[in-house]
Design brief:
Ribonucleotide Reductase Protein R1, domain 1; globular; 3 domains; 13 strands; five-stranded mixed beta barrel; Rossmann fold; 361 residues; OB fold (Dihydrolipoamide Acetyltransferase, E2P); 21% strand; alpha/beta
Length: 361
């Protein structure tokens, strides 16, 4: 496998460092690079220079997954493929991820689920109708910042409201550091700004709840009906259109990763992401007299002072505090899980030692 990047793979988003890694995989002369489109029950659909293929996972990849479930190939991964004499194709290696969107697994476990990998920009897609939930947007932003990709809030369905710019201003105050774009897939308003996020063969991941307009946005960006679209329910809640995470190469350039609507947006570990999503609250907390200030009754608390004089909105503080508690809880769960796994490994090693080295009678 050569480290030289062909125009086809470059259009899929292959970068120099990833190409070099794949070219150095043992046996790379017999391997082919590709990008994972989607994953279905242990099989990966992969785009290569010669077209799409279906590949199972090699023993080495399965061993890596057993040691760390987050090593499971996911949409957006770059992989090295091997074709066998019996026409089987296997994923023999997964390249290190430049960025990864990881949420806590549904059910509140301490393990993380990788939603997409090697993403350049994350578009948090929010419908302007019904009225956006600002606290949910802040939660998505914490998840997006933690990934290492650049977050952008994309407000859709501008044709359904008369005060889109006013709502966008409210959202912008809750999204410092992230651009807020307004668009309509129906009228075409604002689509060029969204399309510019795909310049230079960038990979754009769409995150949001069901009914936010992600599939309509993909179709509008592509200029053709690639995905099915469903109307929202009478109660304003969305219906699931996308059923799996899928990578889509657009005819006009760039790559989009569409994701199913997320009901739960659990934060696994959101230290840097939470600080980036709430730089105003983080800056205030750093000014408190005590480093372990919990911002309740401590003297010299800069956060309480800002709440009292109105410079920090109560809603935003409560949103930050809730996510802080959740992140701290998940960190404790992860630490407990790691300790439990270490104890189990020690017990297994002890049993193996006693079995293999029994003292002579």
């Amino acid at each position: 496998m050569s480290a030289e990047i062909s125009p086809t793979l470059q259009a899929l988003g292959l970068d120099v460092s990833t190409a070099e890694y794949l070219s150095e995989v043992p046996g790379s002369d017999e391997l082919v690079p590709g990008r994972v489109v989607r994953v279905d029950k242990g099989l990966s659909s992969v785009l290569t220079e010669d077209g799409p293929v279906r590949a199972s996972w090699s023993g080495g990849v399965l061993a890596a997954i057993a040691a760390d479930p987050q090593a499971t190939p996911c949409t957006g991964d770059w992989v090295a493929l091997r074709q066998w004499p019996d026409d089987r194709i296997t994923v023999d290696a997964v390249a290190p991820r430049r960025t990864a969107i990881v949420r806590a697994e549904v059910g509140g476990t301490s393990k993380g689920q990788v939603l997409a990998a090697n993403v350049d920009v994350i578009a948090i897609v929010v419908g302007l109708h019904p009225e956006p939930n600002i606290s949910r947007i802040e939660r998505f932003l914490a998840l997006a910042w933690e990934s290492g990709a650049r977050p952008v809030v994309v407000l859709t369905k501008a044709d359904l409201v008369v005060d889109a710019s006013s709502i966008a201003e409210d959202v912008a105050t809750a999204a410092p550091g992230a651009d807020v774009l307004v668009c309509s897939a129906t009228t075409g308003e604002g689509l060029e700004e969204v399309r510019s996020l795909l310049d230079d063969n960038a990979t754009l991941a769409l995150l949001g709840v069901s009914g936010a307009g992600k599939s309509s946005l993909v179709n509008a960006l592509a200029g053709v009906e690639l995905l099915n679209v469903q109307a929202i329910r009478e109660d304003g809640k969305g219906r699931h259109t996308s059923v799996r995470r899928e990578l889509i190469q657009l005819p006009s350039g760039g790559v989009v990763i569409d994701t199913p609507g997320l009901r739960g947006i659990g934060l696994q570990e959101a230290g840097e992401g939470l600080a980036a999503a709430f730089p105003d609250v983080t800056a205030l907390a750093e000014q408190c007299r005590f480093k372990d200030c919990v911002h309740v009754t401590e003297p010299g608390c800069a956060v309480r002072e800002a709440l009292d004089d109105g410079t920090l909105p109560v809603r935003r503080y409560e949103s930050w505090a809730k996510l802080q508690r959740e992140a701290a809880y998940m960190a404790r769960r992860a630490d407990s899980r790691l300790q439990a796994e270490a104890r189990k490994a020690w017990v297994r090693q002890t049993k193996d030692y006693r079995r293999d080295f029994k003292p002579r009678q």
